[in-house]
Structures are given as C-alpha cells and as structure tokens.
C-alpha cells in the first residue's frame, strides 16, 4: 500500500505526465496510455479503501440497530452476554409470540448474529505469512 506522501508525489507526477501534448509518436502514446492506466488503478484503490471503511461502519450500525430493536421489544435476553444456563433459549421465547412476531424476531436475531460473525471473523492470512522465505543467515549456516 502506498503512503500518503508517495500518493501525493505520484499524483503530482501523474498530473504532469498527463498534461503533455498529444503527438503521433508511438512511444509518447504508449507512455500516455501507461500513465492513464496508473492513474486509473490509483483511483480504484482509493475507492476500495473508502468502501471497506464504509462497510465496516455499516456493519457496526446494523448490529447496533438490531440490538436496539431487540432490546426495545423486551428481548434483551437474546442479545445480552449472560450465562448460557440462565438465559432462555430463543425458541422458548419465540414460542410465546404469534407466527408473524416470531418470524420478525427470528429474522432480526439472525441478522444480528450474522453481522456479529462477519465483524468478528478472522481475516484471511496472506500467503506470504504462511510461506516465508528462509533467513539468509540461517542459509549460510547450512552448507
């Protein structure tokens, strides 16, 4: 990932590179195409970073909204972190509701749990972390 200072210098070099006049020289056309592609890739990366931050905020908002709805409906026992033995099961609570109410609560509870799992999921390990190159010092020790 590029740091902000390198991104700034890259943006400055891109704007100076793309401000050249268009000529019929194939080399110049190739370079202009190259710089346009580099600029396009940088814009995509910036957009992806903003989307990832937005998705994370959206997930947290979803969890908070679902939790607030369940708490407001008097179903705090389904979302609080109390001990499993003292907490009534979701099915026991849902059995006291009408079908429509139970379906709504079940949908909210499923959405709440799925969002929590998505937030708490371990990120995928990078292949470079799994298959690291041996240290040069240790390679020198073994003939």
TrEMBL record:
Q: Which residue intervals make up region (Disordered)?
A: 1-62, 123-143
List, as start-end ranges, the regions of compositional bias called Acidic residues: 40-54, 132-143
Query: Which residues lie in Low complexity bias regions?
Result: 1-19
Q: Which domain of life is it from?
A: Eukaryota
Q: Could you list the residue ranges forming a coiled coil in this record?
A: none
The name under which this protein is listed is Rho GTPase activating protein 28
Q: Which organism is it from?
A: Nothobranchius korthausae
